């Protein structure tokens, strides 16, 4: 059966093709696109170890992107997962202290968002070629740090695209900001916003929902799209590495075929872990998905009480890519918890927007048994980095440390014995200062790139080229704006008035 897409808030049963959903990003009614049904994998699990990452990507993604031909999809995959990653495995596993670490930081920006964002521009370009109207695609992205650089790297100089990135000017690390400000490409535009990530994301959503502006754009030959993890072109490529992790565990004789495993996922916008949920629904033997949060633990509360409440203080932490109070992709989970009821899903989302919170029913809560949720405070995160370094001489980035702390506390409190995989989302070099804090290094308080050098001296992992380039690439002038100036800024970039 061919899979189509409908909106989590769709009042009609209207559906669109995968390529339309990829080009639009968000549904016109403000909802997120979900597949009309969740496909099951078409190969036996025992076959997994025979697949390369690229072959596995094809086997999974052909089920979701059903209006792409085999040639189109394979060509996108080949372009996305090649020499731009520093290992042919793309997402290798390592093992410490009885845990598996799925390393998703071997792409050009040394963080997990590369896995999806190296593919998305190619998917969009094929999707656009299927439409008769020739429009330039404008990617609009609010980023808590990593998405920005990864999207810029993916879209830079891709023909018929422009990319505009907004980041919270005090909410990203020095390295993240420098990575963005050294981005090349005439079609790339970057702005620091005087607010937090949610301020920027809310505005971007408003711009997407502005039909007047949309008409104006259409007249001028533009179409907005999103590179955020709400786009199905980002979400589903993330399903692949859950299966790939399992295949490596089989190869490495850590588990037997069909044995269930846990994944601990450092969570912000709920995209990564949602991909794990889809993998489970497709037939991957998953016991629990551990939703790991930092001090902004709005999701921990949600899973443990049923109350989602964004009216709480916002903290800037050592794991900034998880500093989020509104996890956009959670809407898709709500949709499934309501038994795919767009009316009910809309009501919850409306309540979140107007009152700042909602509580799910006990019937909905009873369907959350495959999740466990916990968080790591800043102290626990730093202690986890220190502990791993002293014991195993490996340096965890703070996001990964949050997930490994949550994995261990899950094992300690539940005595669960399933093999547990910590999803490692960034290289320690990307968050050098936070890692040095964890390691009690006196250099933790020296600014910027010197922290990277200090960390290198300590952990003896070669500096990835993407980081060494930051030392000598030209830097763009910083452009800073207020949240209410975002729409005007977009118009200016596109030459509209
Ligand atoms: C984006 C990001 C996360 C959070 O992933 P979500 O899909 O937003 O939940 C975690 N760690 C790192 C390093 C990230 O860049």
Give the topology.
Layout: E1 5-7, H1 18-24, E2 33-35, H2 53-64, H3 70-80, E3 93-96, E4 99-103, H4 113-117, H5 120-129, E5 136-142, H6 146-155, E6 161-168, H7 174-181, E7 188-193, H8 197-208, H9 211-219, E8 222-226, H10 232-235, H11 237-251, E9 261-266, H12 271-282, E10 286-293, H13 298-305, E11 307-309, H14 330-337, H15 342-355, E12 357-359, H16 362-365, E13 371-375, H17 378-392, H18 398-414, E14 419-424, H19 432-438, H20 449-459, H21 465-468, E15 480-481, H22 486-494
Parallel strand pairs: 4-14, 5-6, 5-8, 6-7, 7-15, 9-10, 9-14, 10-13
Antiparallel strand pairs: 1-2, 3-4, 11-12
Helix pairs in contact: 1-5, 2-3, 2-11, 3-5, 6-7, 11-12, 17-18, 17-19, 19-20
Bound molecules: pyridoxal-5'-phosphate.
Description:
By secondary structure, the chain is of the alpha/beta class. The chain has 2 domains: 93-106 and 233-461, 3-Layer(aba) Sandwich (Rossmann fold), CATH 3.40.50.1100; 136-220 and 464-496, Rossmann fold (3-Layer(aba) Sandwich). The chain is built from 22 helices and 15 strands. It has helices spanning 18-24, 53-64, 70-80, 113-117, 120-129, 146-155, 174-181, 197-208, 211-219, 232-235, 237-251, 271-282, 298-305, 330-337, 342-355, 362-365, 378-392, 398-414, 432-438, 449-459, 465-468, 486-494, and strands at residues 5-7, 33-35, 93-96, 99-103, 136-142, 161-168, 188-193, 222-226, 261-266, 286-293, 307-309, 357-359, 371-375, 419-424, 480-481. It has a 6-stranded mixed beta sheet, with helices on both faces. Strands 8-5-6-7-15 form a 5-stranded parallel beta sheet, sandwiched between helices. Strand 6 (161-168), helix 7 and strand 7 (188-193) form a beta-alpha-beta unit. The longest helix has 17 residues, at 398-414. The chain is globular. The model has no long low-confidence stretch (mean pLDDT 93). The protein binds pyridoxal-5'-phosphate (PLP). Pyridoxal-5'-phosphate binds at residues 111-113, 146, 229, 266-272, 321-322, 399, 425-426.
């Amino acid at each position: 059966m061919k899979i189509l897409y409908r909106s989590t808030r769709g009042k009609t049963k209207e559906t669109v093709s995968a390529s339309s959903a990829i080009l639009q990003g968000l549904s016109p009614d403000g909802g997120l696109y979900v597949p009309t049904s969740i496909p099951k994998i078409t190969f036996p699990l025992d076959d997994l170890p025979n697949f390369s990452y690229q072959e596995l990507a094809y086997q999974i993604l052909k089920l979701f992107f059903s209006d792409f031909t085999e040639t189109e999809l394979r060509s996108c995959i080949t372009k996305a997962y090649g020499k731009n990653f520093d290992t042919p495995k793309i997402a290798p596993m390592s093992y410490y202290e009885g845990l598996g670490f799925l390393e998703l930081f071997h792409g050009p920006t040394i963080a997990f968002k590369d896995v999806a964002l190296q593919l998305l521009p190619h998917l969009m370009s094929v999707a656009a070629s299927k439409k008769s109207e020739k429009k330039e695609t404008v990617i609009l992205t609010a980023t808590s740090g990593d998405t920005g650089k990864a999207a810029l790297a993916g879209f830079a100089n891709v023909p018929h695209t422009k990319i505009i990135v907004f980041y919270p000017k005090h909410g990203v690390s020095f390295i993240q900001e420098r990575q963005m400000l050294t981005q090349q490409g005439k079609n790339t535009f970057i702005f620091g916003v005087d607010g937090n990530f949610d301020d920027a994301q809310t505005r971007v959503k408003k711009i997407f929902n502005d039909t007047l502006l949309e008409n104006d754009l259409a007249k001028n030959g533009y179409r907005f799209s999103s590179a955020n993890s709400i786009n199905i072109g980002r979400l589903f490529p993330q399903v692949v590495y859950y299966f790939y992790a399992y295949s490596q565990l089989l190869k490495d004789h850590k588990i037997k075929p069909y044995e269930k495993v846990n994944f601990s996922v450092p969570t912000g916008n709920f995209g990564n872990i949602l991909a794990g949920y889809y993998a489970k629904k497709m037939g991957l033997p998953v016991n629990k998905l551990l939703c790991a949060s930092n001090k902004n633990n709005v999701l921990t509360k949600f899973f443990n009480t049923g109350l989602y409440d964004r009216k709480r203080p916002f903290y800037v932490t050592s794991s900034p890519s998880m500093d989020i109070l509104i996890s956009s992709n959670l809407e898709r989970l709500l949709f499934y918890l309501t038994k795919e009821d767009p009316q009910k899903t809309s009501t919850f989302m409306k309540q979140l927007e107007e009152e700042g919170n909602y509580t799910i029913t006990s019937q909905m809560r009873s369907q959350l048994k495959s999740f466990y949720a916990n968080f790591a405070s800043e102290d626990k995160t730093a202690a986890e980095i220190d502990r791993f370094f002293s014991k195993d001489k490996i340096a965890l980035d703070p996001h990964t440390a949050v997930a490994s702390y949550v994995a261990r506390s899950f094992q300690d409190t539940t005595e669960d014995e399933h093999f547990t995989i910590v999803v490692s989302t960034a290289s320690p070099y990307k968050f050098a200062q936070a890692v040095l804090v964890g390691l009690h290094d006196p250099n933790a308080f020296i600014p910027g790139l010197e922290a990277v050098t200090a960390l290198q001296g300590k952990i003896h992992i070669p500096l990835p080229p993407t980081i060494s380039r930051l030392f000598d690439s030209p830097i763009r002038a910083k452009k800073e704006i207020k949240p209410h100036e975002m729409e005007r800024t977009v118009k200016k970039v596109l030459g509209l008035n």
